[in-house]
Amino acid sequence: MGQRVKRFPDIFLGALLAVAIFAIGFVFGSLPHSGSSAQNESAAKTGNTSNTHIEQKNWWNDPVANFTLGLVFVGLFQVGLFYVQLRFIRESLDDAKIAADAAKQSADAAKLQAETARDTLKTMQDTAERQLRAYLIVAPSLLIRISPNEKLQFVFTQINSGDTPGFNATHSGVMLLTDHPLPENSPFPELPPERPSRTGLAPKLPFNGSIVATRQFTQDELITILEGQTVGKRLYFFGHIDYTDAFGKEHWNRFCYSFPGRHDWILLAQQGRWADIAAIQAQPGFQMLFEAANQHNTTDQG
What we know:
Strand content: 15-25%
Oligomer: single chain
Low-confidence stretches: 1-6, 33-40, 42-46, 49-54
Structural class: alpha+beta
């Protein structure tokens, strides 16, 4: 409880008590004059100049004085009662203020708890969404149609590693015979329009996609591609995939791989034995290696 600055009721009651005490003194101080007046009147009526018989009248025998004294006592009692009532009222106000402060504190605590519960629920929802939503992984697979008479085709596998399906998946890409390694901060090339068809991405099930060259490569260029030069020209694949998760949010993946070559095919390419290369690729369990570039492999999540 804070210190009370204003004490007006106490000061007012003190003033009333002072006035009451002053009134008592004034009333009783005037009573002897009443007795003296009665004595003079008696002496005048009897004509007796001697002072042998003097009638002395005391204040407690005066009805007016007794009535006045009673009024004073009644007033003092009322003042005391009023003072007690003020004390009770002030204490009740203090209790009401304490109750109001406690209610305000309870309301503030309830508001804080509600905000905390709301934030916790949102965090749980966001966490559940992040854990369950579709996450697309791109893995390079094959480079087929290696022939100057066909357009090269890069095959990659899309895998949804999340626990819920993805929807409306589309992709676009391009392959370029360009400098290796890529210059630092190399710009991502402009891609052709995405395919109009859209596919779903079931959880944990692979789905193949492909990028087809925009032109046919010459025999010399194909030999360079099979050499997979450490420094020089190398075949790169740039791709972009858009999809929507089960919670209605759109996401994207961007990838960039290069083909490190197949030295065991260089002689076949020099001899123009493209069918032999295709036959090797058709064998069960055949695999090819690719290298991820040091840039342009990212997602909307970073």
